[in-house]
């Protein structure tokens, strides 16, 4: 039976690869995005176990907790849980919202009739590697709560062909005698493969995570991997020598093909480098971003600040939308990851927006405190923070800068609930709160809040 646990913190973004968006391996309990857990690696692998339901490995994997539940019931449960979580916010005199509008699912909304169960929506896939009993290279998913590999021929929630590519990498690595990494002994080389495939383009990036930089036959592995599927336009190596459950290390280099891939969101084109953040479910991402952009209500001459901007996707889509409506705005993007800022600048150039954009590599809270001291002009503020939410200092600075509108995208409704109360106590009024089902078959919910400054 699927879990009936309410997704109050939105933390159940589990999927069959057992790996969350920030690149930590799953199967270890606790908060799946930020909290490391037990390191109980096992050397053996297990073929796909059979089970009832739409996926033969549903019970063994556990990535899609609600896969056995009809999709309309999944949406109904999420709707109920979010109404309960946000009730203190909705009861405030500074809220126009009393009851949440139906959640935006894939192909329908909560309360609709029969909705088809979503498939093949994940455009990012990953696999851990582990040595078999005789040293062979195994890949698949981590069994729930372990590092035991379950070999998988395909995954119904991943983009078509993704699992075949990853399994092909394991086969080629074995042929080239590149050993898989052993989580017990910390010996071996090949740790993970991370694959991203374009939604609106036929391009993709494959990142091979290794325990050291110098790997015999790695270039040959990369070239042969590109032959597995014509969509693979870039193969990169990421070096992670640490004893950690984080998938990615700090150094990445392209070893075959182009330096990046491209994809499109809301009519904008984005360069995606091998380790750049890019949403896993592009179809729902377009919906999520459009809800935020509609809430911004940008007009001629506005200054939009995109905090925690990553590679600039939200802000650039908003600027392009304003341009399409004949309004010229200025975009200020702030992101602590310098690589993200490099991508954001390239994306602004790619979409003809470079002359009206400024991107700053800095911690968002530090930047906001400086901006408040300088009384910098910000008309509209877009926030898309990590799971921990924004800091009180960031929110206080935002209140003092007094943008007329704030849009807040969140992957963790619990911390968003806390932050919304802070902003509302500071004089902001909640105008809209929308729910988006970014990861069907899990307990995860993403949310978009729109606030306006009280006059």
UniProtKB/TrEMBL annotation:
Keywords: Methyltransferase, S-adenosyl-L-methionine, Transferase
Keyword S-adenosyl-L-methionine on entry: yes
UniProt-listed Pfam families: tRNA_U5-meth_tr
Region Disordered, annotated ranges: 1-51
Residues reported to bind S-adenosyl-L-methionine: 279, 308, 335, 384
Record GO biological process: rRNA base methylation
GO molecular function, one term: rRNA (uridine-C5-)-methyltransferase activity
Protein name: 23S rRNA (Uracil-5-)-methyltransferase RumA
The organism's place on the tree of life at top rank: Bacteria
Residues at the active site: 411 (nucleophile), 411
